[in-house]
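Table S7 (text form). Paired inputs.
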Amino acid sequence: MKSKLKKSLKDKQFVLDEITRISEREAQAKVDEISFGLILAFFLHETGPIPLMVTPESLSSFELALHALADRSFSIFGFVTNPDETKNASFGFQFQKEKCTVFGYDFAILNSESPDNKDSFILCFLVRPPRGNLEILSLFYHELLEYYQKIRGLMTIKADQELVLKEMHNVRLFYAKAMLALVK
């Protein structure tokens, strides 16, 4: 078991070194093959979960699937009660008749106008198999978490939606580059 962990850590360092050699254009060409996208959902007390932002934009047309994903995510995570806390986990989900792995991140932002003084959000990254297996996702857990925390920071300061969407897209590009480097 220890040798497998050492190999994984060695692979990870190799991948992180190789990522810098992979162009944006090369990653962009493969990003849809590697992931469905990212969904940021908001929980509205009156109606339940609502997909708020989606990348790529083409996912917006799958409204029922996005609502099902948001609903399942909030059901799995529950709600963060303290805005200083977060929750994250991975789970399987079927999207567009394809199985995928979801790496989710649950967080809250203070809002005095909300019934419980906070707004609840969930950020879901949908990765296609075989690149979406838990072993590979866990290898890049810390890097993905850094991106998620940046998105959370943008949401906290109520940044322009385009900035949030750009950062969501950057998560997909990072993971595409990581998968391309891992293949090497």
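Next pair, protein 2 of 2.
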Amino acid sequence: MRVKFWGARGGIPVPMSEVQLREKMREALFNAVGVDLTDWDAIDRYLERLPRRISSTAGGNTTCIEVRGDDFLFILDCGSGIRLLGKELLKGPFGSGQGEAHILVTHTHWDHIQGFPFFDPAFVAGNRLHFHSPFPDLRARFEDQQREVYFPVTMDFMHAERTWEILDPAETVTIAGVRVSMILLSHPGGAYAYRLEHGGKSVILATDGEYHRMDAESTARYVEFFKGADLLIFDAQYSFEQAIDEKRDWGHSTPKMGAELAFRAGVKRLALTHHDQMASDDRLWDSLPEAYNHLAFRGRASGSAVETEVLLAEEGLEIEV
């Protein structure tokens, strides 16, 4: 399976500010000692050597993740990142009305559905979009978002075929040859994590979940669900201090908690996502050593080697699973 991030923010889309861009440019220029800035090739080589916290950005679009195989396309959530995904899909079968996608919806808070009105393939007749979720009123929620009091174009203008399948969260289903299971997370209004399994590989999206207690008994159901995953995409919106104090009951987690659950479940790769809209790229990159330090501590304490790789979910990041 191939995974690509089209949006990794939580809450609201956040374009990079002029101040943030200027600071990246300033730091890049400060370190360009000895680089011939009149030579484009030399500049390109220099940019390739820069740390990613300087040369790139985690991006500002809200949650949307593409999971693709040779015979299937899944879209996980419809945050603002789905707009860019739609533009890319139009270059293939979706541009001629021959595309088919399965859309899994974790929940319908705005940052997870707000991009769908701008998803161009939905306006092309012949395309087939299959929505799947345990929420029985999922269709009504999407239609409400495009009522004229909120948006100028109703879903009636979207000519692609749309189907709505209500899933039983207690059951594992097969969709387009992929085994899909789910678990309810602790989040205001409810949110579901999804586990996709195909060809002996597994990808989990567990965004918008809070873990009030981290003892073995309280986390057992999550550890079992995450067990042995090749890739766990995990909500790490807050710092540990925020999660246990000022942001308690907001329904989000931390890098340290993600690392702890990944350790207990034997996860191979952990991708930190659902970034706080107020977090700078520097703060986001600092979440990696926070997670790695916790994994190292757990490894020393248990006397076992820890091989979990930790990644920062960035717009455009592609992972082969």
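The mean pLDDT is 95.
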